[in-house]
UniProtKB/TrEMBL annotation:
Residues 2-131 form the Nephrocystin 3-like N-terminal domain. The keyword Transferase does not apply. Pfam families: NPHP3_N. InterPro entries: NPHP3-like_N. This is Nephrocystin 3-like N-terminal domain-containing protein. Signal peptide: none annotated.
Length: 181
């Protein structure tokens, strides 16, 4: 819920030429619980917003074919992703992953990729939500220009903010639907 609010706020407040690409992991769904699915989803959203970036995908696809996106070798998407991040035409970009701890397959590889690619381009910002697991924190330790926010350490503030947000949304919905008290 919190990351949805952050995405909405970024979308409403950022310049129109800024990209916003996000992915929601869910451990119980094999279609969205792997590092490959995360990269595929983020890459898809980036290319949809800036079609000229598809040239990086076409180059690799011409060499490897359809299997590039489907089989166990799909982790090679990282090469494409890095090429996209290094593309001089790439506009300012936010890459957002929710519930990274629910990425079951190749989470370690994905964490390493995020940490290593955080310095590829100053135009790209990563926002990642995850449970406070020491192994995740250790792997992201090498990421450059990071800011860490622990909601567990600020549980009372988070609960109060969530309550205010819910009250606001309930009032907004009541107004839109013309509900009476």
């Amino acid at each position: 819920m919190l990351l949805c609010g952050i995405i909405d706020e970024l979308h409403n407040s950022m310049p129109k030429n800024t990209h916003l690409s996000y992915f929601f992991c869910q451990a119980t769904d094999s279609r969205i619980n792997s590092a490959t699915a995360v990269l595929r989803g983020l890459l898809y959203m980036l290319v949809k917003q800036q079609p000229s970036l598809a040239s990086h995908i076409r180059k690799k696809h011409d060499d490897a074919g359809k299997a590039l996106f489907e089989d166990a070798n799909a982790w090679s998407l990282t090469d494409i992703f890095v090429d996209v991040l290094r593309d001089p035409s790439l506009r300012a970009t936010y890459l957002i992953i929710d519930a990274l701890d629910e990425c079951v397959t190749d989470r370690t590889k994905l964490l390493d990729f995020i940490a290593n690619s955080s310095s590829v381009s100053s135009r790209v910002k990563w926002i990642v939500s995850t449970r406070n697991w020491p192994v995740v924190e250790e792997q992201l330790e090498t990421a450059e220009h990071k800011m860490r926010l622990s909601l567990e350490l600020n549980a009372k503030s988070v609960a109060a903010a969530a309550k205010i947000f819910i009250q606001h949304k309930v009032c907004q919905l009541a107004q839109e639907k013309r509900y009476t008290p």
